[in-house]
Amino acid sequence: MIKLPKHIENLIPYKAGKQIEELAREKGLTKIVKLASNENPLGPSPMAVEAVKNNLTELNRYTDPKSFLLVKKLSQYYEVPQERIITASGSDALLQYIIYGVCEPGDEVITSQGTFIGWYVNADKYNIKCVKTILDDYTYDLNAILQPSQRKTKDYLSCESK
Q1: Which of 19, 87, 111, 148 maximizes the CB count within 10 A of its CB?
Q2: Which segment of 10-14, 49-53, 148-152 scores lowest on mean pLDDT?
């Protein structure tokens, strides 16, 4: 039998919210606007639907992992060098890349309670301690975040690239 590390065994599986159709059946509702799960109650943009339709014949191919055309357009639009842009399949994937890419065993990440769960889950996945400060009236308490007492955090903003 494979023995999983404790930090993996302790992960709690994601529990999705109720589907709109199930809620409608249970409550007898005909109109529901779901605001959870980062879903858009207005549906996809007509331009996105058209783009998907125009590219259906390419569904058998992997996408470009570097998102070359998207990065090029973003670079031009925001006047930022292409090498300063990173793409991923959502903010959770970006957090995973950041935590995995810059943290080492014994490091910590700092966030506040009640913020995006992706911080907590990704830190747990990589066995990185997640220090949670308290939100003050739904605002980050910067003094608490900057408190250095016995934290193994790094100031990546001041690090020079090697």
Answers
A1: 111
A2: 148-152
